[in-house]
Amino acid sequence: MDHGPYPFGFADDDYRQLLEQVRDRDLLADLEHLAGLANELAAIAEAQQRIILEFADDDTPGGNRAVAEILLADTLRKLEASRFEFDRRLGLYLRTAGHPLARRFPPADDSLRERIRAVKAAWPIDRFVEVVLGADLTPTKPGQWTCRCPLPWHEDRTPSFVVFGEGNTAKCFGCLRGGDVLDLTKYAFGLDRVYDQLAQLERLAGIGKRGRS
Q1: Tens digit of pLDDT for each residue in 16-41?
Q2: Which structural domain, as residue segments, surrounds residue 118?
Q3: 3-class secondary-structure state, position 171
Q4: Beta strand pairing status for 138-141 and 144-147?
């Protein structure tokens, strides 16, 4: 059956195989998560810009303004990457969701936004890093902590992992991994699917049994 032309330059058989593997709910979950992450990163960027303005006269190497400028540049790069990935996955979803070959899945029983809000409320970023990842946090300023990186495959000799309470995210400036509690769950437990990350966070928080994808 010919449903061409196919996006991304796929031939008929290759595109058919791709569509059989696409899970609509996973794509939608990723889109929801990426949109939320972009909003959180934008909030962090605004906070870092305020710090730069507050310490505009601080020309000390390694001072507050210099550190804030480095953090802001990194945040903006990550924000751009998250928005690019959002657009890429949205395009994939829109191109496959209504295609005759796409597999159909029943609608989710739970509101994805509600589940994400619930696990983030249950696991503020500092509590998650301490309790789940087993890190010893040292406060550096109100709402910000640092520690040795608690993520797998990184032997951190100096505290390079920073936890940002205002944006509810964390970042390792050694291995360059980080994000919100869903991202950290991905790295810590090797879970690539957002639904699996949610399920793990719900189990850890003792949140009632949820439907599985």
Answers
A1: 555 555 555 566 666 667 777 777 77
A2: 112-205
A3: strand
A4: antiparallel
Rounded Cα gap, residues 118 and 31, in angstroms: 18
Whether residue 169 lies inside any domain: the answer is yes
Q: Which of 173, 186, 211, 189 has the alpha carbon at shortest distance from 30?
A: 186
Task: Give the closest residue to 11 by CA, choosing from 58, 19, 154, 112.
Answer: 19
pLDDT, tens digit, for every residue of 36-49?
Answer: 777 777 777 777 67
Cα 138 vs. chain centroid, distance in angstroms?
23
Query: Tokens in use for 169?
Result: 């995210």
Q: Are 117 and 41 members of one domain?
A: no
Our measurement of the distance from residue 120's CA atom to the centroid of its chain's CA atoms, rounded to an integer in Å, reads 12
Task: Assess whether pLDDT exceeds 90 at residue 123.
Answer: yes
Q: Residue written as tokens 């609608």?
A: 107
Give the number of domains in the chain. 2
Residue 60 lies in a domain: yes
Which residues is 178 bridged to in the sheet?
171
| pTM > 0.70 | no
Indicate the pLDDT class of residue 1, thresholds 50, 70 and 90. Answer: very low
Alpha helices in 55-155 (DSSP H): 64-96, 112-122, 125-131
Tell me the pLDDT tens digit for each residue of 52-109.
777 777 777 666 677 777 777 777 777 777 777 777 666 666 665 555 544 444 444 4
Which residues make Cβ contacts (< 8 Å) with residue 7, sequence separation at least 6? 15, 95
- Which of 112, 106, 103 lies closest to 30 in space, CA to CA? 112
- Please check whether residues 170 and 86 belong to one and the same domain: no
